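[Q] Does anyone have a clean structure-token version of this?
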Amino acid sequence: MTGVIQNALSMLRAGEWMPVTAARVLIGFFFCVSGGTKLFVSAQFRVLEQTMVQIHVPFPHATALFVAMVEFACGAGLALGLLTPVCAAMLMIDMIVAIATVSIHSIQASGFLAWLDDFLYLPEVLYVLILVWLIFSGPGRYSVDGLIASKIGLFGVGR
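[A] Here you go.
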């Protein structure tokens, strides 16, 4: 029986690259589209810029432009698996700032457990969790990072 369980676990481990790749590509695509929309659709950029004004960010136009470019470029990087830890870290910082300046103020719960429940329900919290996972797990087998690593003889990227 132990052999069957070990074989099943080995099969699951062999397919570990699939959810890593799917999570990386999908969250990268999400951020790339979100950032691209903010960059290339003026109405969406104005909403972001107005948010920057409302939360009293210095230089709201430049900050909105920077945030949109980070989301677009780092989202594309994640989707391709290019500079995965750097892109994930940049997007994670973006999400933490969004949580601290905007999202957290939308929570209207009374009591700690209700507040915690609402906080953990924020999509940005899940994005941060996925991005941290990608920083530590790496890009997965099918990525530009993996291709470069295999070409120069680095190991451990090809899960």
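[Q] Thanks! Anything notable?
[A] Residues 18-152 form one domain.
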